[in-house]
Amino acid sequence: MTQVFIGIGTNLEDRIANISRAVAMFSQYGNIESMSSVYETEPEGLKEQPDYLNCVIKAVVEVDAVKLLAILKKIEKEMGRKRGKRNGPRLIDLDLLFYNNQVIDIPDLKVPHPLLEQRAFVLVPMVEIARGFIHPVLHKSMLQLLTEMESSSRVDKCPDVKIEIKES
Known about the structure:
Blueprint: E1 2-10, H1 15-26, E2 30-35, E3 39-41, E4 52-61, H2 65-79, E5 93-99, E6 104-106, E7 109-111, H3 120-130, H4 142-148, E8 155-157
Helix pairs in contact: 1-2, 3-4
């Protein structure tokens, strides 16, 4: 059993439904132990697009990281994600942020997820559910990374949004 953290983002169509569906689909492959609140965030890079909803789930899986990445891509595809512009709008985005405390650097998979320490939309929900988790490359906790981050990105908690986690 391996602990993983997965970032979820969406900025097209019914964003709350997209997150709910992605969480439900993922629960067929892993046991979700916790989930952050949902946050509304401004887009990174390409600014002329709708705001995102983002969250992070902590789960336990029984597959290796390459297989887990394939599962995440399969869920995205089944939900209707079409690959488009880099940092462009997307129906759903599932990112493998951490795979236990492993460092993986192969052609199609980089773990920890590159640049997550520069992204408030990842660090804020990570701090909520795993503030003491240590980044295996930077050797700093999620709270330290967020505190040290120099970002003016807007990350607003959506207090009325509740996503149900189904038992696997």
